[in-house]
C-alpha cells in the first residue's frame, strides 16, 4: 500500500521517541475541554470529524480514509482504515490523537493492526472555531429532549456549552432553523451575496436569507442581537417547514383557539394557528403569549422564547417532518360571491400609465410607470392589484365584505424590477383586513380604504387612502 512506502521515513524519524500505545476504554464522563467535531488539516489529507457524546467518527482524503474512536479527556483513541480493503494488516490499524490545550491542533500517531512500530499523524490543525465540550446548561424538564436534539445534530455550534435557559436572539434562532433545514433536506446552503445587511456578516444568517428562511427587519438591517418573541418564532419556523415540505397541509382548520388570540399581530395569526395545529409550538394555560403588549410585559420579558424552547421546537419539527410531508391540503371550496357588492369594480390610487392587462397571464405586461396602486374586485369574489412604488408588485387572491370590513385571503404576490415586463417567483402573503367606505363625491365613485390597524372613523390621508373608480 502507498501508505507503507510513505511511512518508512516517518518511522525512522520517530522511532527514538515513540512510546508503545495502550488502548483503553474511553471515560465517557470526561470529554475533555473542546469537541473534536469539525475540519482538520493533517499530513494524511483533510479530515472531517463528527462527535456524538464520547464517540467520534469521520473521513480523511488519503486513500478515502475513515476514522472511528472514543474520547478520554483530551485523547482520542481508535482505528483508521483505507481503501481498498479497509481491513488489517495493510489497510487498517490503531490511531491516537492528543488535542492541544487551546483546541486548535492535535498531535497523533498510527500503526498497522494492533502491534508494531508507530508512524506520525502530524499537522493536525483545526479549520474554523473551536467548539466547547462543556455540556449546555438546560432546565431539568428539557434535558432529555435537548440530548435527543444534540444527537440529531440540531444544536448549532454557537449554542454548544451555552446557557440554554436564557432568551434566544434573532441570530441564534436563525442558526437553529438553518441547521434544521440542512439536516432535514440534505441541502448544502451558500450565503447570499452581496450581503444586504449593514449590521451582520454572519454567513449562517446569509445562508438562511438565501433559501428564504430569514428576513431582515428592513432592507438593510437584521438586528441579530435582538430578542425574538413567540409570534416571530412561529412565522420563521413555519416558513422553514414549508421549504422542507412544500406540499404539506398548512391550513388553519382544527387549530386551537387561544384566550389571548386578539394579541396576535395580523401578519402572524396564520403562522401561529398553523404551527400550533402541527404541535410545534404549544400554548401555556390556554394562552399563546405572542408578544408583549404592555410596558410591564416588556420589562418582564413576557413572550421571550428561551434557547431550550427553540431547540425543542426544532426537534418537534424534525421528528414530525414525515407526517407533515404526508399531509395534503384540504380541497378548496368553490368560489363564492362576496357578501355585499359595494367594492366590485376597479379602483385607482395615484397615477399609473403604460402596460396592458393580459387576461391570459393574469397580470400587467409591457411595462407600467407612475406611482400608485390599482385594485380590481371581481363579482366572483376574486381580486387583482398592481402597485408601483420603487418596484412593481402584482397581487392576486380572494376577498369578502362584511360589516364594512374588507377581508383579503389566499393572497399571493409577484415582484418586477422593470415595470411589469418580467415577474419574479410567486410568494404567499398572510391574510389581511381593513375597514372601508364606498361613496360618491364631486370626483365620482370612490373607495376609502383604511390603513393597517386603522379603525373608524376613517379620514383620508390620516388613517385611510382614497381610491377612485376607473
What does this structure look like?
With 470 residues, this protein is an alpha+beta fold. It is 21% helix and 29% strand. The chain has nine helices and 19 strands. Helix 3 runs parallel beside helix 5 and helix 3 (170-185) packs parallel to helix 8 (307-319). The chain is elongated and about 100 Å long.
What ranges have pLDDT less than 50 throughout 5 or more consecutive residues? 4-29, 336-341
What proportion of the residues is helical, as a percent range?
10-25%
**Rg on CA atoms, Å:** 30 Å
Strand content: 25-35%
Order of helices and strands: HEEEEEEEEHHHHHHHHEEEEEEEEEEE
Distance between the termini: 83 Å
Backbone shape: elongated
Mean pLDDT: 85
Largest sheet: 8 strands, antiparallel, barrel
Classify the secondary structure makeup into a structural class.
alpha+beta
Number of E-state strands:
19
Strands across the major sheet, in which order? 1-2-3-4-5-6-7-8
Key words describing this protein structure:
alpha+beta, elongated, 470 residues
Q: Can you give me a brief rundown of this structure?
A:
This protein has nine helices and 19 strands. It is an alpha+beta fold. It is elongated.
Amino acid at each position: 500500500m502507498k501508505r507503507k512506502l510513505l511511512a518508512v521515513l516517518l518511522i525512522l524519524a520517530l522511532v527514538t521517541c515513540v512510546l508503545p500505545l495502550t488502548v483503553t476504554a474511553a471515560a465517557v464522563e470526561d470529554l475533555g475541554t473542546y469537541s473534536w467535531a469539525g475540519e482538520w488539516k493533517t499530513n494524511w489529507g483533510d479530515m472531517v470529524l463528527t462527535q456524538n457524546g464520547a464517540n467520534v467518527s469521520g473521513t480523511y482524503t488519503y486513500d478515502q480514509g475513515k476514522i472511528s474512536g472514543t474520547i478520554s479527556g483530551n485523547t482520542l483513541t481508535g482505528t483508521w482504515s483505507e481503501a481498498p480493503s479497509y481491513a488489517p494488516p495493510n489497510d487498517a490499524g490503531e490511531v491516537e490523537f492528543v488535542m492541544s490545550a487551546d483546541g486548535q491542533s492535535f498531535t497523533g500517531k498510527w500503526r498497522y493492526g494492533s502491534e508494531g512500530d508507530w508512524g506520525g499523524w502530524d499537522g493536525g490543525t483545526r479549520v474554523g472555531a473551536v467548539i466547547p465540550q462543556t455540556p449546555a446548561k438546560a432546565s431539568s424538564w428539557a434535558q432529555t429532549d435537548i440530548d435527543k436534539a444534540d444527537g440529531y445534530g440540531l444544536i448549532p455550534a454557537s449554542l454548544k456549552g451555552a446557557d440554554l435557559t436564557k432568551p434566544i436572539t434573532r441570530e441564534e434562532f436563525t442558526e437553529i432553523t438553518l441547521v434544521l433545514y440542512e439536516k432535514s433536506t440534505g441541502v448544502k446552503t451558500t450565503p447570499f451575496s452581496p450581503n444586504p445587511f449593514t449590521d451582520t456578516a454572519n454567513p449562517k444568517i446569509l445562508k438562511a436569507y438565501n433559501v428564504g428562511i430569514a428576513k431582515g427587519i428592513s432592507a438593510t438591517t437584521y438586528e441579530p442581537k435582538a430578542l425574538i418573541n413567540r409570534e416571530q418564532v412561529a412565522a420563521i419556523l413555519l416558513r422553514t417547514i414549508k421549504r422542507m415540505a412544500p406540499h404539506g397541509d398548512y391550513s388553519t382548520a382544527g387549530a386551537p383557539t387561544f384566550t389571548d388570540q386578539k394579541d396576535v399581530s395580523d401578519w402572524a395569526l396564520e403562522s401561529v394557528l398553523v404551527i400550533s395545529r402541527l404541535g410545534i409550538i404549544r400554548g401555556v394555560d390556554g394562552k399563546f403569549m405572542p408578544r408583549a403588549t404592555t410596558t410591564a410585559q416588556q420589562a418582564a420579558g413576557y413572550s421571550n422564547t428561551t434557547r431550550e424552547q427553540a431547540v425543542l421546537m426544532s426537534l418537534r419539527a424534525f421528528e414530525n417532518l414525515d407526517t407533515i410531508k404526508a399531509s395534503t391540503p384540504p380541497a378548496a371550496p368553490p368560489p363564492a360571491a362576496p357578501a355585499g357588492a359595494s367594492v366590485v369594480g376597479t379602483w385607482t390610487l395615484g397615477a399609473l400609465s403604460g402596460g396592458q392587462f393580459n387576461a391570459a397571464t393574469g397580470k400587467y405586461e409591457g411595462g407600467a410607470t407612475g406611482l400608485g396602486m390599482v385594485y380590481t374586485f371581481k363579482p366572483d369574489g376574486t381580486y387583482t392589484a398592481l402597485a408601483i412604488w420603487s418596484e412593481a408588485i402584482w397581487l392576486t387572491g380572494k376577498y369578502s365584505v362584511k360589516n364594512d370590513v374588507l377581508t383579503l385571503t389566499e393572497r399571493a404576490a409577484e415582484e418586477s424590477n422593470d415595470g411589469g415586463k418580467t415577474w419574479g417567483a410567486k410568494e404567499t402573503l398572510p391574510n389581511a383586513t381593513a375597514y372601508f367606505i364606498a361613496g360618491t363625491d364631486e370626483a365620482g365613485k370612490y373607495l376609502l380604504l383604511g390603513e393597517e390597524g386603522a379603525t373608524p372613523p376613517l379620514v383620508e390621508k390620516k388613517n385611510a387612502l382614497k381610491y377612485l373608480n376607473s
